[in-house]
Specification:
The protein has 112 residues and is α+β, with helices and mostly antiparallel strands. 23% of the residues lie in helices and 12% in strands. The chain has a three-stranded antiparallel beta sheet, covered by helices on one side. The chain starts with 24 loop residues before the first helix and ends in a 10-residue tail after the last helix. The relative contact order is 0.21.
């Protein structure tokens, strides 16, 4: 699997594919492969610093009904990619690839 979508158009000016450090894009974007695992009814991604404190089956049961579950971040970001759960669909994976092929990021507006 790729760590950056193959036709991705944007990354920081001071970074390039293969450069170690300086941008966490490949570490974050590799997680997107979970959305395409549609041979499963539900998938969940947890960062390595997550410790389970009980039964996680409720998360998978809820995600299997079509709900997308995630959390907000500790510094106010609206979406924390350290945890998400969903019903996978290969079309979502394809959508991420198409978006990355067509999106650029604007530093002034902070939008892609």
């Amino acid at each position: 699997p790729w760590s950056l979508p193959p036709t991705m158009r944007w990354w920081p000016e001071d970074w390039w594919p293969g450069k170690a450090g300086g941008w966490c894009g490949p570490i974050d974007l590799i997680r997107l492969h979970a959305v395409g695992l549609d041979e499963y009814n539900a998938v969940a991604f947890y960062d390595q610093d997550v410790e389970f404190q009980g039964d996680m089956s409720a998360v998978l049961l809820c995600a299997s009904t079509g709900h997308f579950l995630s959390t907000s971040g500790g510094i106010g970001e609206p979406l924390n990619v350290g945890f998400f759960a969903l019903r996978p669909d290969r079309r979502l994976m394809r959508a991420t690839e198409l978006f990355s092929a067509n999106a650029t990021w604007n530093k002034r507006t902070n939008w892609a």
